[in-house]
Write a structure and sequence with these properties.
Helices cover 66% and strands 5% of the residues. It has 477 residues and is mostly helical.
């Protein structure tokens, strides 16, 4: 009884710290959602897809001609955001709010599963809040990105089967897995884990699961591909064949282990103790961790670890009960100390030794200031005054002003490396032809020949520091 009370009050104290830290996370969400401009490159392209769907336009278009863009993901996230746009208009509120809600829902799912497994409320809160307060979740939670929604759907599928294995839960899992893949095409960890679990436990339900999932996925894929003249699969598969670098993956993995060590410990403890009794959770955690190898792809980042963080947070909730109610005082004290250190890593990501591993760009975790907004307002004024097309490196500026987004620097570099010169050559021709009323570049992402074309045909009229310095250029006369 004494050790149970000790573990209970210790966890209550830890949860109190996590609640305070979660308030910081909610404020960060609010600050990002309320900011009307791009914070990081990439947000505007997701916003553009949602805005096009809101007005009934196609998002998977040929890359050889203007706007020279790739829509990297299946359409579910953009479609859902387009429905929010009915209320908000083409603003970042729609896409960022959808992302934030997905992360909040994922925290709720972690709480729900442990609660259904009859864990005390303190353990349910602990696991959910430790996920929510991860520095990776904090960074990505309110950005216009698809990852949080894909993880939410995947976890929903796992939870459906973990709570009760029957026909209804299998069909629900198939639907959730379809929604995950319709959000992000690489969201296959849950599918693989469920298939392996059912192969061992109930092959009849395995056939039902795979049949239900495929009956949703295959017709939807064929319809989208046919209605876009084959562009759908080219966009989400062919144009996403980015280079993979072992050194990059090893660096990302090292940083994850160093900054989320309690999650790695939870997986190891759980794998040893519950190897046979908790098959589905262990299968999913293992496969999710293996899929983080994709962080070695060109352009990948810490968002690829969010699925692993979600499932290992559940494992952490389970093993915490084992440890904090253990009779070994040293084990309980040591584990609690590690949790407090982990929380410190999350709360203070920029101090040493955390910063040795937490090497991120300056916009990660940023709460935009009033000065940032005023600077971006100055930049936005140039765009509003332009009567014709504009070329802007961070495309959200174009979307919120209801202008077409032209060119994606990272994608154009990818085309050049693959030897697909036509999109880049045609893009440069539009610059030389002075097609654009304005060119607004940070100049960091485009290849040299693109920048040389802007220097040939345009001249600088302003420089504005708006979360990064932008060069505003007008055409030579």
């Amino acid at each position: 009884m004494a050790r149970t009370k000790f573990g209970y009050w210790l966890l209550v104290a830890i949860n109190g710290i996590l609640v305070i830290l979660a308030l910081r996370g909610f404020y960060h969400m609010y600050a990002v959602i309320a900011f009307p401009y791009d914070i990081t490159n990439g947000e505007g392209f997701v916003l553009r897809d949602a805005a096009l769907l809101a007005q009934g336009s196609a998002i998977y278009q040929p890359i050889e001609q203007s706007p020279f863009l790739v829509s990297n993901y299946p359409p579910l996230f953009a479609w859902l955001a387009s429905k929010i746009m009915l209320l908000t208009g083409p603003t970042f509120i729609a896409t960022r709010m959808l992302s934030a809600l997905a992360f909040i829902a994922t925290s709720g799912l972690i709480f729900y599963l442990l609660h259904k497994k009859n864990f005390a409320l303190s353990y349910c809160i602990f696991a959910a809040l430790l996920f929510f307060n991860s520095i990776y979740v904090y960074y990505w939670s309110a950005w216009s990105r698809v990852d949080g929604l894909a993880v939410c759907f995947s976890l929903m599928a796992i939870i459906a089967l973990e709570i009760k294995l029957n026909m209804r839960s299998v069909l629900l899992a198939a639907l959730a897995c379809f929604a995950a893949v319709a959000t992000k095409q690489s969201a296959l960890a849950a599918v693989a884990a469920i298939a392996l679990y059912l192969l061992i436990n109930d092959r009849k339900l395995l056939i039902i699961f795979l049949s239900a999932w495929a009956s949703l996925l295959i017709p939807a894929t064929l319809w989208l591909n046919s209605s876009t003249d084959g562009e759908f699969l080219r966009h989400i598969i062919t144009y996403n064949q980015l280079e993979w670098y072992p050194r990059v993956f090893l660096g990302q993995a090292k940083n994850f282990v160093a900054t989320h060590f309690i999650f790695v410990l939870a997986y190891t403890w759980f794998a040893i103790k519950y190897f046979k009794r908790k098959q589905l959770l262990l299968f999913y955690a293992t496969i999710a961790l293996i899929t983080t190898i994709s962080t070695g792809r060109d352009g990948a980042s810490t968002n690829y670890f969010i699925e692993s963080i979600a499932i290992t947070a559940i494992l952490l909730g389970i093993i915490s009960k084992d440890i904090l109610e253990n009779s070994n005082l040293r084990l309980r004290t040591g584990f609690a100390s590690l949790i407090l250190i982990q929380i410190g890593f999350f709360a203070l990501p920029n101090i040493k030794p955390v910063s040795w591993f937490n090497k991120t760009t300056p916009d990660f975790g940023l709460n935009p200031s009033q000065a940032d907004r005023q600077a971006c307002d100055q930049l936005n004024a140039y765009i509003q005054a332009a009567t014709g097309p504009i070329l802007v490196e961070n495309p959200g500026f174009a979307v919120i002003n209801r202008k077409e987004v032209i060119g994606n620097a990272a994608v154009l570099k990818f085309f050049r490396r693959k030897g697909w010169d036509a999109p880049v050559d045609n893009f440069i021709q539009t610059i030389d032809a002075k097609t654009y009323d304005l060119i607004i570049f940070q100049g960091e992402a485009y290849d040299l020949d693109v920048l040389q074309a802007t220097d040939r045909s345009y001249h600088e009229i302003a420089r504005i520091d708006c979360l990064g310095e932008y060069e505003v250029k007008a055409p030579n006369r």
